[in-house]
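Help wanted!
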Amino acid sequence: MIEVDPGVAAMSGSAALPRSNGELVFSAPWEGRAFAMAVGLVDALDLDWEEFRARLIEAIDAAPERPYYESWLAALERLAADHGVASR
Amino acid sequence: MSGPAHHHAPPSPIEQRVAALEELLADKDLVNAEFIDGVVSLYENDIGPLNGAKVVARAWVDPDYRERLLADGTTAMDELGFAGPEGRHIEVVENTPGVHNVIVCTLCSCYPWPVLGLPPVWYKSPPYRARMVREPRTVLREFGVELDEDVEVRVWDSSAEVRYLVLPRRPAGTEDLGEEELAALVTRDAMIGVAIP
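Answered by r_m:
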């Protein structure tokens, strides 16, 4: 069974995951994949979820009008780059 | 192979970015497609209020299951295949004509994930957490739950060790409904105790 950091669900304010009746809402498949990649990358690099959350909030603040998962992807790309995960 | 093999719309720029990142993370052995599929399916299919609703509907139609569920929620949910890291030690509290139950987590936001999905935003809000303990009747009224004065309200404070799930009363006039139809009546809020199905 895949274990997901409870911190993922606990995000609040602008970083709170879009949901409906308690379930996550992905409006396109890429959103779900981006969601899962963040969970997986934080785990693979043995980081605290906070590392991602802080970048997510930064990304949201930088472009408040941007859809949530676009900010999510920007934060994820940032996290990868900051930890030296970049294309060769 | 030349030319498009099928007729999907070309990937949007954002889909291309996601695909590029996915390839990169797979190349570096950090996150593979199998993990991604697993997480997506976990959230889309395996956890959520639907699971809790199935548990409640089973308890409504099967008195033996109801008894097992109230005696040991964790094991009874496991019977239906609902368990997981966040689902350990779930205690089910039953609404009766004289008792209405509601769950809260005053310390953080403990919540029975595998059966209820992710907690609603208000569940974690300090006002809900504080007021549900102090003035449950008022808060319940704000949620639209009117209780007779002689109904006792029990507030269950979740913790890292014990998560609660409310077993609502089966609505009147549903004698002819099957288990699946009954499950459709059970909302997340009813299993938190802030709604009545």
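OP: Thanks! One thing I noticed: DSSP finds ten helices and four strands in chain B.
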